[in-house]
């Protein structure tokens, strides 16, 4: 996204929340809020009209909730990346958002810099899971049906090269491409190439799904 303004649609049923998010995002000269919606249905229609890079979806909205809107967005405007906004980090919502192909999950009490960083990460094609929800989700996933998930994860990871498994392990730790590169003594661009190859081989939608797979495989 370097050199191009990131277009964003905000969807939340509370006008004050939308105003606050708009104020935070527009403080970054590289981000433009092109439309706002009070419900999921309007969010989908506005995304069709404006072709945004990122759509911020409140999880609880009238007419059409954020998770249902996410499913429609994936069909109607597949190039738009969706970030789910919520005031809580319930496991089921996070898992469904990721399963539906969401670009991430962000708690509404996140710091302004985190919101901007999440939007930039989503626009760049990366996934973002709020630190406030990450440990909760990973720990919950590790507790149930662990054996079956672990066996399947190890089978899939076995198809990767040793270097690819090393990069995947760092994804599981939540490292960015730059941080992983420093750890592995590789350039950020090289790590990005490895990540793309890993996602394709594992048939993962995004980095978060790959990170969860790494955890299940015991990396």
TrEMBL record:
Pfam families reported for this sequence: GerE, Response_reg
Residues carrying 4-aspartylphosphate: 58
All copies of domain Response regulatory, residue ranges: 7-123
InterPro entries attached to this UniProt entry: CheY-like_superfamily, NreC/VraR/RcsB-like_REC, Sig_transdc_resp-reg_C-effctor, Sig_transdc_resp-reg_receiver, Tscrpt_reg_LuxR_C, WalR-like
Record key words, sorted: DNA-binding, Phosphoprotein, Transcription, Transcription regulation
Spans through the membrane: none
Domain HTH luxR-type: 153-218
PROSITE patterns associated with the record: HTH_LUXR_2, RESPONSE_REGULATORY
PANTHER family recorded: TRANSCRIPTIONAL REGULATORY PROTEIN NARL-RELATED, TWO-COMPONENT RESPONSE REGULATOR
Name under which the protein is recorded: Response regulator transcription factor
Taxonomic source organism: Streptomyces antimicrobicus
Lineage: Bacteria, Bacillati, Actinomycetota, Actinomycetes, Kitasatosporales
